[in-house]
Amino acid sequence: MTDFWNDFPTVKKRLEAVSAEMASTVRSAGFPLAAELARVVESDGKMLRPGFLLLAAEFGKPGRAADLAPLAASIELLHIATLIHDDILDEAPLRRGEPAFHVRNGVKEAVLTGDWLFAQCFRLASAFSTPENARRFALVIGIVCSSEIRQDLDKFRYSKSVREYLRKIAGKTAALFSLAFTLGAVEGGCDPGTVGRLRRTGYDIGMAFQVIDDILDYESTEGIFRKPVGKDISEGLCTLPLIHALERDDGRLAALLENPPFDRPAVDRIVRLIRESGALEASRGIARRYTERALREIEGLPDKPVRLTLRRVTERLLVRAY
Amino acid sequence: MTDFWNDFPTVKKRLEAVSAEMASTVRSAGFPLAAELARVVESDGKMLRPGFLLLAAEFGKPGRAADLAPLAASIELLHIATLIHDDILDEAPLRRGEPAFHVRNGVKEAVLTGDWLFAQCFRLASAFSTPENARRFALVIGIVCSSEIRQDLDKFRYSKSVREYLRKIAGKTAALFSLAFTLGAVEGGCDPGTVGRLRRTGYDIGMAFQVIDDILDYESTEGIFRKPVGKDISEGLCTLPLIHALERDDGRLAALLENPPFDRPAVDRIVRLIRESGALEASRGIARRYTERALREIEGLPDKPVRLTLRRVTERLLVRAY
What is the spatial distance between Cα A56 and Cα B6, in angstroms, rounded to a whole number? Predict the structure, then answer.
């Protein structure tokens, strides 16, 4: 686990139980690549989704959150499964500073290991949540996959629609954050109003998180969001900064985008144009709007000590980042 | 659907409802590659697993089987998901005589479409079966993935252990047949003794089915099992005929196996040696043993009209094939 949770020792302690659950899932059941998968599972993920799931549960009946380690593990394993498949598809050599799973174990094993992990997630979800939540879990994975496919089909097609972009990241990212909050809230025994509010909180956090991630792709390799600058451009992804830059474009940017794929100098030129256009500030405005919405939802939650923790975690994740 | 079920009009009619359920799953929910996936789903699969699921349910309470179309759909969609991923991994150009999904739509889309299908299977399983059966469903998928990984890791390593081979196909094939029978039996409302007997029937049918499939890889491209001869040898798979042939080998076969990968003439020489060794007859003996066990289990099932149907389907699948 990264040090993201260091200032939140109670959550951190709970997440250690989640990590133990993940490790035991991976190492049990005669899985042939257990040791290799354990390397991934035990690497320094931020554990955002299980952390939020547990925090949401604290708004419910006392003591319930303590039983949710297996369900929290399942949502993090799901995230890891999608990362393993994504890395194959993106031909990514590294993940969290280590050779990606498919590089060490082969593409075939990586596809099957992702599939195996999906199965374990569903096994945990159906064993440790209501049938309705298990169904919800499956539904969201379907949405994430659909959105990833849509994103891939849209590669190197540059739309100027902010709305289309928001719909895409809602499916790709916010749906899973929202699921984590909803599962925690329902299984924690929250009343329906609180479940709804937590679901919306998760959605807004997920939207802000993805917008910030897409901004940072143009900014920096530092901090908790680590990716090489310009990666989205070289992959043909049209994210919010590019959309805002195209809105402001005098024709130079559109011309540069005409001949994909882009070599390194082309990527650098495009990134520079986007930075200079003021598009990053405009995008930051949208991230801020979602963050503020999330913080407003949080203020409306029941007045329990966990509310302050959730606000601080959200600020740490989203406010420091821009 | 193939004409496999033509002689069983009641099952065939039920399977048409299953096909409709599959088609509506694929075409709903805003899936971006719906039309492409519908091509696969609507192609001529044998629908063995959903057929067996429905037959097993007939041993339970009257009328229950009629409600099991969504669950039967989910087990066939699962099978299709694994085929889509397998075809990527095997770089197979064709599936059921048509270009494979990844050939028409790209590897990335094929991986994500398989993932999406897994999610739909779990959604259907958690919506239309008991939590225990949803958990069982996930467990079996995990077993299938583990077995596929184990098979891949063992490529070009030639073991002489029949037992190891049987363990492998139990996970790869029999587990899923057994699951189909178990889900049908439990959801159909069978008593525990009948559930157990149907589970064992499914296991034995699955084992016989896979052994026959592995024999036919050395025999023929005709009939309901269609694969090019010698495919397993060229892929480095060590199946039952090869194991039996190695037991009888005077050293010539072992020598030929020493330098993989094998070109076409090498594959042909190896296949000829295996055929001449009597290994196919020995393998047929094992297939027959599982078939007979399955038929004995069927004879012990409650005396309902479906028992005769199940026996005839089993004989059609397994007895005519060798």
Answer: 54
B51/B313 Cα distance (integer angstroms): 10
pLDDT tops 80 at residue A235: yes
Identify the three-state secondary structure at position A98: strand
Q: How far apart are CA B264 and CA B229, in angstroms?
A: 11
Share of chain B above pLDDT 90, in %: 71
Please say whether the beta carbons of A179 and A205 come within 8 A. no
One-letter-per-residue 3-state SS of chain B: CCHHHCCCHHHHHHHHHHHHHHHHHHHCCCCCCHHHHHHHHCCCCCCHHHHHHHHHHCCCCCCHHHHCHHHHHHHHHHHHHHHHHHHHHCCCCEECCEECHHHHHCHHHHHHHHHHHHHHHHHHHHHHCCHHHHHHHHHHHHHHHHHHHHHHHCCCCCCCCHHHHHHHHHHHHHHHHHHHHHHHHHHHCCCHHHHHHHHHHHHHHHHHHHHHHHHHCCCCCCCCCCCCCCHHHHCCCCCHHHHHHHHCCCCHHHHHCCCCCCCHHHHHHHHHHHHHCCHHHHHHHHHHHHHHHHHHHHHCCCCCHHHHHHHHHHHHHHCCCC
Q: Is the pLDDT of residue B221 over 80?
A: no
Among B80, B91, B123, B168, most A C-beta atoms within 10 A, so best to mutate, is B123
Q: Which residues of A make CB contacts under 8 Å with B?
A: 29-33, 82, 85, 88-89, 106-109, 111-116, 118-120, 122-123, 125-127, 131, 134-135, 137-139, 141-142, 145-146, 148-150, 152-153
Q: A73 by DSSP, 3-state: which?
A: helix
pLDDT at residue B77 tops 80: yes
- Rounded Cα distance between B109 and B105, Å, is 6
A250 confidence band (pLDDT: 50, 70, 90): very high
Q: Return d(Cα A35, Cα A163) in angstroms, integer.
A: 43
Interface-testing mutation among A109, A111, A117, A179, with chain B (most B C-beta atoms within 10 A): A111
Q: Which residue of A has its CA nearest to B26?
A: A142
Q: Cα(B61)–Cα(A79) distance, rounded to whole angstroms? A: 41
**Domain residue limits at A33:** 3-318
Distance CA(A93)–CA(A118), nearest Å, equals 22
Task: For residue A113, list chain B residues with Cβ-Cβ distance below 8 A.
Answer: 145, 149
Would you state the pLDDT for residue B91? 75
The domain tally of chain A equals 1
The rounded distance, in Å, linking the Cα atoms of B265 and B271 is 10
Q: Nearest-5° angle of CA A176, CA A179, CA A182? A: 160
Give the CATH number of the domain where residue B216 resides.
1.10.600.10
What tens digit of pLDDT does each residue of B48-64 get? 999 999 999 999 999 88
Name the β-bridge partners of A99.
Answer: A94
- How far, CA to CA in Å, does A172 sit from each of A168, A225, B24, B258? 6, 17, 23, 48
Euclidean distance between CA atoms B193 and A45, whole angstroms? 47
Is the ipTM higher than 0.95? The answer is no
**Chain centre to alpha carbon of residue A235:** 19
CB B78 within 8 A of CB B119: no
Q: What is the pLDDT of residue B227?
A: 58
Q: State residue B320's pLDDT score.
A: 64
Work out how many CB contacts closer than 8 A connect A with B: 142
